[in-house]
Amino acid sequence: MTVFVYAAIVFGVLAFAVGTAARAVQYARQPMHLRWELYPVPHERADRAAHGGSYFEQSEWWRQPRQRNLRGELAAMLPEMLLLKALREFNRGLWYRSFPFHLGLYLLAAAAVALLALAGATLGLGGAWPGGAFGRGCVTAVTAVGAAGLALAIAGACALLLRRIQDPALRAYSSPGDFFNLGFFIVALSALGLGWATRQDGAPGALAIAAGLLRWDLAVPIPALLGAGIVLSALLLAYIPLTHMSHFVGKYFTYHAVRWDDAPLGEARRLRTALSASLAHRPTWAASHMRGRGDGTWADVVATNPSREDGP
Amino acid sequence: MRPRTKFSDLARADREPVARIDPADLPPLSSPGPPPAKLAAAWPARMDAAGYPLDGTRVLAFPDPATKAERDALVGAFLSGLEKLFSRENNWTFLQPLLLSMEHCARCQTCSDACHVFESSGREELYRPTFRSEIFRRLYFEHVKGGGLVSAWQHGRVEVTWPLVARLGELAYRCNLCRRCAQACPIGVDNGLIAHEIRKLFSQELGIAPTELHASGSMLQMKVGSSTGMNAAAVRDNASFIDEEMTEKTGVAVETPWDVEGADVLLIHNAGEILSWPENPGAFAVILNAAGISWTMSSDIAGYDSVNYGVWYDDAQLARVARMHAEIAKALKVKKIVVGECGHAHKALLVVADRLLDGDLRIPRESALTLLRDIVAGGRLRLDPSRNDFPVTLHDPCNVVRLMGVVEPQREVLRLVCPRFREMTPHGVDNYCCGGGSGFAVMGGNGFQDWRSQVAGRRKLQQVLDAFSDCLEPAVRKYVCAPCSNCKGQIRDLLAFHDVWRRHGIMYGGLAELVVNAMKDVNPGFIEWEWR
What we know:
With 312 residues, chain A is mainly alpha-helical. Chain A has 13 helices and no strands.
């Protein structure tokens, strides 16, 4: 059982990391696109960003130095990442359900990282975590964060599932997979919480299991329900990058690479090089006005006038 | 209560519309007084028997395949185009944003309440921003990503048939591409972009696009110089007539300079202004001459028409027209191009085509709104704002504001020349589309003009009425400033359809007209309070 639990944890974390990275790399490697920004763009100069303005509001903007307001960008990003600001603003009813869910996941992630840090420290201290006030305080804090995270994530997932079932507008657009995803969260996290809460006196807790994992100690007797919860949660972690639940990756790109991407071609050698490469592609669109002069490149197609040369 | 439209309804093989919209289901307008009779005349009853009708109106002309082989061939062409949309060779222009919008929608419907078409239709499911996106997404996972049972379980599935394909193409033209939904999406998914890409697929692969945008739009522009059909001689004749009119009206000699090599500014208007609202190019001529600007217009092909309809439906057409505009500026050796009061032309030439124009085609490009702001705020005109002593509100063209970030210059001008300026709610980057965006304003057959007056423009009309709620009586003349040609066309049709000039005394026009109306050095009364 123990080796199975350890293997599941390693697999889950690695699969999550690899899957997430692969998705990010996939999007990052897409070709430069035409500009399609959406205002407000928060890295604009603060006085313009306040009303959603752009550098186009300046006279002869191409002569002015561009000022990137990183502070403004951070001020827009943090509430969006931590508080789901857009959802709160535009869909308050769903935010009441989604925010606890996401906050719960953030707390769980924080607790997992802290647990591994404590476990690492335990190994550094010769295998036993100090029992003084500080040591107990740390464990209590991590436990509290983890428990709160579990409770919030489970409650949020239940609320989201109920909403998806009850609201006709959501239900009609949901696939079986959407219901499964939320159900998976509820089952995996509930098993984890129940396993932890119902373990017998003397059974290893989260810290002991984490320390056991780090030293690959197969003698740690992990309780069955807790082990099942860990395995399910690890599988859930591995599953996330395969679904649209990895929208935290997509969101980075939709904001930074599309909505806020206002870089003019003129100032970036990278963009000019990308344009040259893209114009060298040979499109195969079939409509008559797209053909240009036969199997030409995009540069050839764009240089033709189909109303005079090829088209109807 | 009407039944909820389902995805599978689009695949229906019968010739009945998928949705029937009863005007009684539309949100009531706050306009006092009895509605004009034609409000009650149900445009949705004007059903279209051709092809596979969607909702009683139609902008695309589809082939009507008689045999299964013909239907299969069309479906095959659609699927081929679908695949091309996701290849960098064919769609490097929008591949990254499209992929992101395909793969990360949480189907939370947060976008729905942001959509004026969905809301103004009485929440008809067909117009929900996610409706067409979800069908397209399911086709993507099934036919581009490999499909299979697991995919169907995870993403859902729709059966691809010719009726579904044809109706999906038509449905791409029930979205104004205003991208207010994208602004509301917590993840950044862009349903407007998806509609745009569906339009591209139909145009670039199947050669199907609204006549007004393609054959009589971008193709005509590239052939004779303007989507209005005006050739160079006609436009110069018209401009000469406008100069005479303006001279007589303002008492100031007005002459439009043509093809002046080395001018500081190449001004490109939407040529529709020259035909439909000649006072706008006329006002620009008065202002630029009075301010001592070195400027010119071009009589070269496309040089006198800033429209670029490709931005709504076809990347190649977009790039070709943008390139023509840049080449003309290069040949004239002007210092910059200034785009007149035309929203989509702003976005096309200054924003979207920015990453298409390099080398010697990289001519600086600027908004006329910025130039007007500089002239007015810079004290280069003698102004008497009391000449504009009537209520004025501002319509924010989506292409200029939310999609480009030019928000304040037009307001700075209005604050200086219109003492009774008031904002709409919401405004700026949160504005609502006029309902004519993405080409709708120039499309009107088969009941479409009624549809955009009843549904797409309904929210804007309500905003206008709300902005003037303290003075709706017709004796008080009011002005909706719409610094965009297509928005003006839509607002004209909206006000006419709902009889708003007669009932409430609400007129519309551009920004430059208000400036000239306040100029001390011209005769008073530039703005004519007469409905045309």
